[in-house]
Write a structure and sequence with these properties.
- 55% of the residues lie in helices and 0% in strands.
- By secondary structure, the chain is an all-alpha fold.
- The protein has one domain.
- It starts with 19 loop residues before the first helix and ends with a helix.
Length: 184
Amino acid sequence: MQRIRDRATSYLFDEWQFLGEKRKKMLAKGWPGIVRGELLEWLPIEQGRLCFDAKQGRPTKELYTMVGVVALQQMLDLTDREVVSALAFDARWHYALDIRWESNADKYVCERTVQGYRKRMVELGLDRVIFERLTDRLLAVFEVETGGAAFGQYVDPVEHASFASGGDFCESDAAIFEDAASES
């Protein structure tokens, strides 16, 4: 049975008020705010729901959460154990994935569940869809000009100095992602 939260419905109360203005602002301006505000709606939830029967069987974990968990795991280069811990306890993940409730159903998964969802997404080819959608969205959000380069094509950093922006091409995806968030 599919479990997908309605993200279009607004909330009467600010669930993040307990953080205070400064910490809430840090979340909104950092990578959690980018994921929540710009990327979450671009996750391929409709294709992900094909893995599960709409009416029969055990209810799934909430699909925005699980597809988001797998995407964040890859973006931040985390192990399954680190993902389980981050989802259970890290307010940045809760904010990014728009998890507003303090329940095990919403904030707890085991490593095997993470592995199972990741395997299903790879089998459906959603890993590629997630990468392409989120990359395209980030390029649009940060107004990055690719100079017409095709995906995977070598771009001479001298000709396209804006790509390098003084950075090292060997930086991890997580560092690049956090740097982009701090610049916005």
